[in-house]
Amino acid sequence: HRDLHSFPTRRSSDLDKLAGDYRGAIAALEEAAVYSRHIASASDLAWLYRQLAGLRLRTGDYAAAHAVLDVADRSVWAQGNWGRQLRLIRAELAWREGLPAEAARLCEEILRDEAERPTFWVPLRALTSARLGVLTLEAGDIAHGTALLGDALGAAAAAGDRPAAATATEGLAAAALRTDGGGRAATLLGAADSIRGAVDHSSLDAPAVRAAAEEQLGPAAFDAAYQQGLSLPYAEALDFARASGERLSTVRLGCYSFPRR
Asked: What H or E segment, with its residue span, contains residue 52?
């Protein structure tokens, strides 16, 4: 009965996170943890701790995120390769704390481990490549960052994982802003939401891209470009993201400003 009860609370947490209701998502996850802690598998524990730490990160409570990950390390790290999920959260946390070199190191470590022995969690490679791609963009290597994001999109699309493909597309929007301008960036943000099937208000990348593109274009032009991407059916949105990645890899760096974190 406890396991059955944890499932709806976990789904509730997913929906609250998507809506940006972090307090509700955290409450639902903590309830799920109470019911699952003593009976959950390593994969369930990894999911719970990864989600909870990611939510704490998004609230800006980095100390609480570290505390969750420390507990997770003791509970999950030694149980197979599920610990890689937690390392990805540590990478995101390091990025938000202003430690991009540490974040990149963790991402590269995960990708090396994935190349040697892939995990059962299909989105990991795509999400890690996407995070490393954004880090690489911010470090100034647009070509390599775009290539990593294209690889992330390809891996997510091949696995049929819509959220991971949307995350990679949002990263490509950040690349577009640096090279091709706010119009393509806005359309890619719309395409990302079409690919996902919903707006993810918990996205780590979309808010900064949206703000910079809207400042560059103005609200009306931004909305028109965004709606163009949002109106695309899933397959067409995916094709647009792929084609944009290929285009961006050949466009020279423009003069478009982007706020550094």
From this structure: helix 42-59
What is the secondary structure of 14-31 as a DSSP string? HHHHHTT-HHHHHHHHHH
d(CA 170, CA 137): 13
Q: Rounded distance, CA 35 to CA 183, Å?
A: 47
**Distance between CA 44 and CA 101 in Å, rounded?**
30
Tell me which residue has tokens 């490393």: 132
pLDDT in tens, 236-247: 999 999 999 999
CA gap 204, 236 in Å, rounded: 24
Residue 203 in this model has a pLDDT that exceeds 50:
yes
Contact indicator for 127, 152 with CB cutoff of 8 Å:
yes
Q: How far is CA 114 from the centre of its chain?
A: 18
Torsion sign, CA atoms 17, 60, 91, 150 = positive
Between CA 152 and CA 123 the distance in angstroms is 9
pLDDT of residue 100: 97
- Say which residues have a Cβ less than 8 Å from residue 218's Cβ, sequence separation at least 6: none
* Identity at 37, one-letter amino acid code: R
* Nearest partner of 53 among 104, 105, 94, 109, judged by Cα: 94
Residue 154 class from Cβ within 10 Å (0-12 exposed, 13-18 middle, 19+ buried)? middle
Rounded to an integer, what distance in angstroms lies between the CA atom of residue 210 and that of residue 180? 15
Choice between 82 and 205, residue whose per-residue pLDDT is larger: 205
Is pLDDT above 60 for 15? no
- Give the per-residue SS3 of 127-179: HHHHHHHHHHHHCCCHHHHHHHHHHHHHHHHHHCCHHHHHHHHHHHHHHHHHH
